[in-house]
Amino acid sequence: MGLALGAGAHMQELRRTKSGPFREDEMMVTLQDLKDTYVEWKAKE
């Protein structure tokens, strides 16, 4: 992005806050949370 703007810069974080009808503050989970829940569920079987 810094190169495209012609400035020395770097990006520390890129975050999607909305995708279609879904917003970040509405019932969203991280991939890590999803994985942890799946691992816990599989361990109970």
UniProtKB/TrEMBL annotation:
Domain tRNA pseudouridylate synthase B C-terminal: residue ranges: 1-43
Gene Ontology process terms (BP): pseudouridine synthesis
GO molecular function terms noted in the UniProt entry: pseudouridine synthase activity; RNA binding
Pfam families on file: TruB_C_2 (PF16198)
Entry-linked InterPro entries: PsdUridine_synth_cat_dom_sf (IPR020103), TruB_C (IPR032819)
Name of the protein described by the UniProt record: tRNA pseudouridylate synthase B C-terminal domain-containing protein
